[in-house]
């Protein structure tokens, strides 16, 4: 058993838990059945850049800030005991679990700003742990989060592993709310078919209300070996254009334009498809 002490320069613990090990930990029934740990972890995962303080999360979700610190400690304790290869020793010489799941970034006005460890984030993504079951659930997430501080998102062109098929209601692939948020931020909350289209301000932050749409519909996900729930396949539309692309007669020009806008980005993430096939998805000959 190795003792690990806090790095005096970074104020963090130099531990090495791989994404694969985090996946193993998160799959354990003790974690899967623990609603408190999962609830706190989900809220941290959905925070911008996976970064927040216990106090800020408490303010956003109307909970005691100590709930988040306690659940973080509990997850850290479980991980340490499950792996059984190291202990974290605090400044008081006693074992601690605070630095297992997160990295401390700085302290602002009495609040410790911390970020989930990247290996833990990778494990959550690979498992699709907090993906939403329906489009309504994703929209609910978007409407309750203030996005004013979000910067324009530049496409990363990352190939993403295909998520596990959900069977909680009807068989469908879960949607990642972070993908939807990034699509809105990439378009800077402007309709990507026509940026001049007006809309109304969002209640939570006053930004223009926009909706997200998968250019290649998710119901065709089985035709691809990788995830198509990625920002490169997600466009930002005003409500009128979103309804038009679903229900309008004259939607061909929209699809052709959006395809020209995204075809290179789709290719870079490994989604190779021509316009004629996309048009068939929309029942357009």
Structural features, described:
- The protein has 11 helices and 8 strands.
- It has 285 residues and is α+β, with helices and mostly antiparallel strands.
- It has 2 domains: 123 residues, no CATH class; 151 residues, no CATH class.
- It has a 3-stranded mixed β-sheet with strand order 1-3-4. A 3-stranded antiparallel β-sheet has the order 2-6-5. Strands 7-8 form a two-stranded antiparallel ribbon.
- The N and C termini lie far apart (66 Å).
Number of strands: 8
Helix-strand makeup class: alpha+beta
Strand order of the largest sheet: 1-3-4
The low-confidence runs, each spanning 5 or more residues with pLDDT under 50, are 166-170
Architecture blueprint of SSEs:
Elements: E1 2-5, H1 19-27, H2 29-32, H3 35-45, E2 51-52, H4 54-61, H5 65-83, E3 86-89, E4 95-96, E5 102-108, E6 111-116, H6 118-127, H7 135-143, H8 177-186, E7 211-214, E8 234-237, H9 239-247, H10 252-268, H11 275-281
Parallel strand pairs: 1-3
Antiparallel strand pairs: 2-6, 3-4, 5-6, 7-8
Concise overview:
With 285 residues, the chain is α+β, with helices and mostly antiparallel strands. The protein contains eleven helices and eight strands.
Q: Top keywords for this entry?
A:
8 strands; 2 domains; single chain; alpha+beta; elongated; 285 residues
